[in-house]
Amino acid sequence: MNQAAKNYIDDLLYQSSRLIGVDFLKLLTDTFPGQVTFSSSFSFEDQVITQQILNNQLPVKIFTLDTGRMFPETYSTWSSTNAAYNTTIKAYYPNQDSLQDFIETNGPNSFYESVANRKQCCFIRKVEPLQRALKENSVWITGLRAEHSGDRKDLPLVEWDESNQIIKYHPLLHWTTEEVKQYISANHVPYNPLHDKGFVSIGCAPCTRAIKPGEDFRAGRWWWEDADKKECGLHEHQPPSSKEELSTGVIIK
Ligand code: SF4
Questions:
Q1: Segment holding 116, helix H or strand E
Q2: In the structure, which protein residues have their CB atom closer than 6 angstroms to any atom of ligand 1?
Q3: In order of start, what are the domains of the chain with their CATH numbers?
Q4: Which of 1, 90, 103, 141 is the most buried (most CB within 10 A)?
Q5: Distance (Å, rounded) from C-alpha 159 to C-alpha 157?
Q6: Is the Cβ–Cβ distance between 205 and 71 less than 8 Å?
Q7: Mean pLDDT of 117-125
């Protein structure tokens, strides 16, 4: 990855206080040509960012992590997004040998049996493919919002991801849920219909459920685990000391 990109953090933090939205995205693509990438899970937030990137023809590489266990509605949203913007969102897949070994040893639904199995499944299906997707890039755009969890309230718009050696930019960090919904509606952005059925954070089908009004944003993910273990390693804010630690992650998505 690109350690030299770290030197830009202070200046980008300053610029992020002056420029917003598409203007800051343009600054990033001008500063790091061919090295800006965006990971989409087709969530409300990610659909807003996809629309902004593609409608403004910004040279940002958009990708998704196809875990193989996503909802049919998520695949439909992926398909309708490709059609709406006449694009092809690239997918990264789990390493076949790792996945086969894991399932042969533990079975297809072992994530319900232990936190260790669940984290290993997340590592194989999400974290390792993400590492491949981020390789050779300098900037990773995400759809994180401060409202998503207490851990994210103090996040800066731009930060250095030591684990992945990459700059992270969270353009919707300070947007409210209502602002996201209004943008989706006003701009006719295709979105995952599960959002209309009480799903807020949509991940893999076996590990995601709808939440009730007033429940925590994360209550629909890995609901059978303690709240402090709900993590998959996509968004870490501490450097892992080993592959083992990396595989168990620190911060949720
Ligand atoms: S969310 Fe569930 S199915 Fe998806 S990678 Fe993690 S443990 Fe596996």
A1: helix 115-122
A2: 67, 69, 111, 118, 121-122, 125-126, 203-204, 206-207, 232
A3: 3-245 (3.40.50.620)
A4: 141
A5: 7
A6: yes
A7: 97
